[in-house]
Each structure stands twice: as C-alpha cells, then as structure tokens.
Write a structure and sequence with these properties.
37 strands, Rossmann fold
C-alpha cells in the first residue's frame, strides 16, 4: 500500500449505512423552486427517513437549501403551484399513518389536509385541490366474518381495494375556520368536505396509479381487481370524467340533509325490515361523474397526458406480457381510447414512440417541450427526448447519469439525483443547452461525506461467455491495484433478473447489503455481473435466460473467472459469490452446481423452482421463464434448481432471509439449509424477524453486511469466523 492510499479513510459498515443520499428531485411548474428528498439513517429508531429540502433557483444559486419538514418521513412530494408544496409524510413514530401536509409559501410547520384513519397511500394535485388513495372504508365484510368465524384467509380470493377521494383546499379551509367557531357538539354536525369518487365502481378495485388530466376534467386510473400479484394481468384502465368541485358540493349537500336522520337513535323496533332495505333503490351517484373502462390491450397503462389533455401516453409491453418483456412508450388519442369497442381496435390506433430504442422505458413525462423518458443503457441510466415519429435524442448531463428517478416540470427543467463512477449522487437541476447538452446545477454537496474515503476504483469490463455472448459487469478494484498481483474475487449478483448493476461510485447495494468497499480495502476484487436477462442490453438479451435459468447465468460467472484469470488479476482458488433475490438464486446455483467457488452467500434466494412456484406470490414468474407448469413437466424445473446439485455439494454457504418474505418465502432458505446440513456442508442460516423480501431497517442491514464481510473474510482471507460478534 502506497503512502497516498494509506492516508485515505477506510469506512466502517455503519458509516456506509449512515450516508445521506438524494432520492428524488421535483421542480415547481415555473422552475423557480426545487424540492428534493434526502434519505437519512435514524439509528435510534432503527429506520430510514426522508427529509425534504427546498431551494430557490431564481436567486441564481445564491441561497442554500432549506429543510422543510421538521418531523416525520416524507413518502411523496408534489407541487400544487409555484410556491405550494404538498408532502405525504408519516408521523414521528413507526406505525403512524401517512397524511398529506401543505406548505404554503414554503414556510412554517405545514397544514395537515387529510386525516384518514388508515392513512393515505398516494396523492396527486387535481382541480382546486388534490385526489388521494386510501383503504376502502366500505370493506366491512371481513370484519363481520371475523366476528362470526374468527381469523382466516381465503387464499388468493381476498379483495383488497383502494378508495379514491377528492378534497378542495378552499372548501377545506372554510370548513376548518367554521369548525373553530362552534362548540364540540355543534362541530359534530359539520360535514367534512372530502368526497369518495370510487363509489362509482361496481365492485372494489385495487387502484395502482392515478394520472390526472392537465385540464382538470378527468382522472385516469390504472387498476387491478385484487392486489395479489397472482392477478397482475387482471388489469384495467378507467377514465373518470367529472366536475370535481360540483361533485364535492353535491356530496356535502346530501350529507347535511341526512344528518338529522342519522343522529336519531334507532332501535330494533324502528329499524326497517331487511327485505324493505333490500327493496330500496340504489343511490344515484351520477353527480360523481362518468366512469368509463378503456378497452386497452393487456398490460397497457396510462402514464401521462399531453399538455392539452387530448392524447394519452401509454406504457405497453407490445411484444408479449412476460416478465422479461420491455415496456415501450405509445400514444393514443383520448377520443379513440374512449370510443374503442375492444382492445384490438384500440391497438390499431396506438403509435409506438420507442420502437427504435430497444430498451425498457422506466419513467415518462409529457410537458410542453416534449416527451421525456428514462431507461437503463448498459451500466448507466439515461434520459431521452422522444418525438411522435419514433425518433429520440439522448440527453447529456455533463457526463452524469440518473440515479434512480427524474422529473421534468412544465417550464422544461429536469430534476434528478445524478452520479457517475467518480461522483457521489447529488440532487441536481438540468437546463437545456445547445443540441443534446444540458447544463447541470448541483443543489447538494453530499459527496463531502465520502471525501478522503478509500472507495477503490470502478470500471465496466466485458468478456465472452461460454456460448459466445458478450457479458459486461462493473468491476471495483483497490485504489492501489497492481495488475501483476493476483487478488481474491467476490461476485455481487443483482436481482431481478431484469435489473442491472450501475457503474456509479456507490450504488444501493454498496450502502445497504454488501460490504464491497470493505472488501476492496482488504485487497479483494468485486465484480457485479450484468448477466444474461439483465436490463440495459435490449429485448433479445433479456430473453437469453428463458428456459436456461441458472445454467446460462453460471456460464456468465465462470467465463468471467476465466477472463480475469487470463489477465492475471485473480487467484482462481479464492472466488466467492453473493446476491439477493434472483442474485441469491444464482449464488445458490453456483455454490451447488460448480466447483469454482470457495464460499457463497444466498440472500432471499430460490432453492428449488418447484418449491418456489407453489409458495410465492408470483407463480407466473416460473411458468414464463420455464415455459411450462411444473405440474405438467418438472424436468426443466429440476435442471435449473440449485437443489439438484445437492449430492455433490461442498461449498460453504451463508443464508440470509426475512421471516415475512412473500416474494421468496422462507421455506426456500430452510430447504437449502436442511439439505446442506444433512450433506455435511458448512452452512449458516440467519432469519430476520418482521422483514419481507428486502431488508429495510438499518440495524438489520448492518447485520447482513457484517455477516457477509466476516463470511468471505474467513473463507477467502483466512480471518476468524465471528458471525455473532
């Protein structure tokens, strides 16, 4: 180690977890203000919290960001106008339901405008106020059932619905002012001016996303009959056309008329017989608007509307509807969408904007300056401007790339967390320049947190797999890397499989799951392979692991070992592999079906596709990747299952799993553990109570990272095994 490297700070696991990271940047419609969220770690309460900051952009960058929320954690933020920001935030303690708060003039403690008992799940600005989603209050059937029969679950048949509400801010302000002038008893007769629009639905629906039209006359709802992922194709898009303020006024009027009757005590003698109640005509709900189901193709969703509200911007898996199919951008006239008698007719009138891109479009906006969308390209995330003829222009953000999400306001400025291989993620604002170039203004200096840290170096490398396919991956090397020296190697395999590892200075896995920095500081190379099936390489590449799960993935890993060995950079006798979810599956497959790994770590991984198929919440995943149900043909399931390699297993294995994981149920971990235990293979299983598929609490993240660090330090570097330290 040279003197310069020795002077660098080698961060601890807790220091990695404590890094503040920007997660979202949103700009006011006129572009004068920016709001951004920074995720912080609260070790005392064992949770991550999002803090909102605002920055005056009109001041020429002379002002500093100002913290807006003084308490709670922000889940969503939306600009209502140029100086009013709405935040969806939880309370100070875990479990307190999230509510919407308004910060008018961007000062003060905020005004709480919702008070839903179960909390608000999401909201959007609309008309003179906002629309929001919360649990459906009409769902009393389950309560009645429980009172009669106790607790049980009707598997995959439980309705779970969201209710859609509208509130007008001026009316709400008048309500609260009047409430303050009344006694407590008098105030009980006031009607809260919040109207449930979803009463128009014939049956409960799970509303996923809401897209209000810019003209304030309609709302587009992406729905599913149930929220079980089993029903992910049982989808529909509705258009609700309404005069929101007129609907609210009529609701309040009717509710006020009912108040005297409702407040009168009723007895069994005065109640109407059940048969008379059943004979009552249904309530006329036409005042709430007109609800129309759009006859769109399967897996076609509304993501935005044109500024004049006449055309829809759609996300659609046009080729087929499998997990591994890329979503594309399409447009459709609103009149055609409303009039289409069936999906095939609507399909003929849709126009694809991203056919020439061959990438999965993740986010999209339609603003006066054009249509913009983000996508993964290799090991970076880009933004492009699309025209309506299928052409696109990739934007250049001064050599920076989107880190997770972006936003574009009506005035044409883009807000984004941005990073690259040498820069820590910062909240940024981008302004259009000449051609495709956009100038970037940094709103934060979060990179100061890692100033002087030894983070090694990051680069993208490429190699040929066993079948000749080119694979790329992100390689992290020690700062004092010597190409004549042979280093231990650890793979960090991403999940998905339709995801990718980015070439950024520090990514999500570096900060939450895997001690990559600690590895390189101990003289270990870390390779994150974007194996076949990963996003960012086009549709054909995403399909390469269909009917070839595990097998082709292992080709990609073993060929990387051969490539790095040929370069003379690694010791092939000291190679480890770790991953979470699909990455955990690949790690398990590598540990059980290959002799090239000294140790592996399996995080929430699949052990057997048959076990997984019958116990997870997305059984269609296996039938699409393996083409057939295991009840019809198990041969491919056995061929691609890690457990099939158990008889020859010998690689020590660390297993980590959340107790409440529904995506990859805990049975996968236990099956793998029992099998290895009985075969006499060194194995350790750690179960994290209360955790689902991801690990979402700082202390548990700390344990995951520490266990992995100690596991591979022991088997690759000869350190003492101290998993319980």
């Amino acid at each position: 180690m040279n003197q310069e490297t020795a002077a660098l700070h080698q961060p601890t696991l807790r220091e990695m977890l404590a890094l503040d990271v920007p997660v979202e940047v949103k700009l006011a419609p006129g572009g004068a203000w920016a709001a951004f969220l920074v995720r912080t770690m609260n070790w005392k309460n064992n949770r991550y919290e999002n803090v909102c900051y605002v920055q005056n952009l009109a001041a020429g960058g002379q002002t500093s960001p100002r913290r807006l929320n003084r308490s709670g954690s922000v889940q969503q933020m939306e600009w209502l106008n140029d100086d009013t920001l709405a935040l969806l935030k939880t309370g100070n303690a875990n479990g307190q339901p999230a509510q919407v708060w308004l910060y008018e003039g961007l000062i003060g403690e905020g005004w709480q405008v919702t008070s839903h008992k179960e909390g608000v799940s999401s909201f959007r600005p609309f008309a003179g106020g906002l629309i929001f989603l919360a649990d459906d209050p009409r769902r009393t059937e389950k309560k009645k059932r429980t009172e009669r029969f106790g607790q049980y679950q009707h598997f995959e048949q439980e309705d779970s619905a969201a209710a859609l509400y509208y509130l007008n801010l001026s009316t709400l302000r008048q309500y609260e002012a009047r409430q303050r002038t009344l006694t407590e008893d008098e105030a009980k007769d006031l009607v809260l001016p919040v109207v449930e629009l979803s009463r128009l639905f014939d049956s409960p629906l799970h509303i996923g996303e809401m897209t209000p039209a810019p003209d304030g006359k309609s709302i587009y709802l992406n729905c599913r009959r149930r929220d079980d992922y089993t029903y992910w194709r049982d989808t529909s898009v509705y258009c609700l056309q309404l005069d929101a303020d007129a609907a609210l006024a009529e609701y309040v009027r009717r509710a006020e008329e009912k108040k005297p009757a409702d407040s009168t005590e009723t007895s069994a003698e005065t109640q109407a017989p059940a048969e008379e109640k059943a004979a009552e005509p249904p309530e006329d709900l036409s005042y709430l608007g007109t609800l129309t189901r759009l006859n769109l193709p399967e897996q076609c969703f509304v993501v935005a509307l044109s500024p004049d509200s006449t055309r829809l911007l759609l996300s659609f898996q046009g080729r087929d509807h499998h997990f591994y199919t890329q979503a594309e951008l399409w447009t459709l006239d609103v009149t055609a969408a409303l009039a289409a008698p069936d999906a095939s007719t609507a399909r003929t009138q849709m126009r694809c904007l991203s056919a020439n891109l061959d990438r999965f479009v993740l986010q999209a906006y339609w603003v006066p300056s054009g249509i913009f969308g983000s996508y993964v390209d290799g090991t970076v995330m880009r933004v492009a401007r699309f025209d309506e003829h299928g052409q696109f222009t990739v934007l250049d953000f001064d050599g920076l790339y989107v880190d997770d999400a972006f936003h574009i306001c009506k005035s044409g400025l883009i807000g984004l967390p941005a990073a690259n291989s040498t820069s820590f993620s910062e909240a940024c604002v981008a302004r259009p320049g000449e051609g495709s170039h956009w100038s970037v203004q940094r709103l934060t200096d979060l990179g100061a947190q890692v100033q002087g840290w030894d983070l090694g170096t990051v680069e993208t490398i490429r190699w040929k797999s066993q079948d000749g396919v080119e694979i790329e991956g992100v390689l992290r090397k020690p700062s004092n890397f010597d190409p004549t020296q042979k280093y231990p190697l650890v793979f960090v395999v991403h999940g998905g499989p339709t995801a990718s590892s980015p070439e950024y200075l520090l990514d999500y896995d570096d900060r939450r799951y895997y001690p990559t920095i600690q590895f390189v500081n101990q003289g270990v190379l870390v390779l994150k392979p974007n194996y076949r099936g990963s996003d960012g390489r086009g549709q054909a590449f995403m399909e390469l692991n269909v009917n070839n799960l595990g097998v082709g993935d292992l080709w990609d890993l073993e060929s990387a070992i051969a490539h790095l060995d040929q370069l003379g950079w690694i010791d092939p006798q000291r190679v480890g592999c770790m991953g979470w979810s699909q990455g955990g599956y690949i790690s398990a497959f590598a540990g059980l079906r290959s002799d090239k790994f000294k140790a592996v770590s399996v995080g929430a991984g699949i052990s057997d596709w048959y076990t997984y198929h019958i116990s997870n919440d997305i059984p269609h995943f296996t039938t699409e990747y393996l083409s057939v149900s295991p009840f019809r043909d198990r041969s491919l399931y056995d061929q691609t299952a890690p457990m099939s390699g158990l008889p020859q297993a010998h690689t020590p294995m660390l297993i980590q799993h959340g107790s409440d994981d529904q995506r990859v149920p805990l049975s996968n971990a236990k099956e793998l553990y029992r099998g290895l235990k009985e075969m006499g293979v060194p194995v350790e299983l750690f179960i994290f109570p209360g955790m689902g598929h991801p690990i979402t609490r700082p202390r548990e993240n700390h344990a995951v990272m520490y266990q992995n660090l100690n596991w591979f330090s022991h088997y690759l570097l000869g350190a003492e095994l101290e998993l319980e330290k």
